[in-house]
Design brief:
Blueprint: H1 2-42, H2 49-58, H3 61-85
Length: 86
Amino acid sequence: MEHFGKKYNTRKKLMNGILVLELTVGIIVSFTLLGIFIWAAKSGQFDDSKKQMDGLLFDSPEDLQKAYEKEQKIKKMKEQKSKCNK
C-alpha cells in the first residue's frame, strides 16, 4: 500500500508541474500578443482614415447608385417586416 502512496504523490507533483508550465506559457503568450496589439495600435496599423476619406473619389457613379438602391431596398424590407409584425 505504501508503494501506491508514493506513486500517487509522484503523479500529483507531475500534474502540478504541468499545470505551472501551462500557466506560465499561457501568460507569456498572452502578454506577447497584448504587446504586439499595443505596438500595432501605436504605430498606426489599424488606421484606415485615408481610405475612407478618399473612398468617394474612387467610387464610380454606378457604384454609388448601387449602394443607394441597396440602402433603399433594406429600408423597404424593414418597413414591410414591421407591418407584418403588427
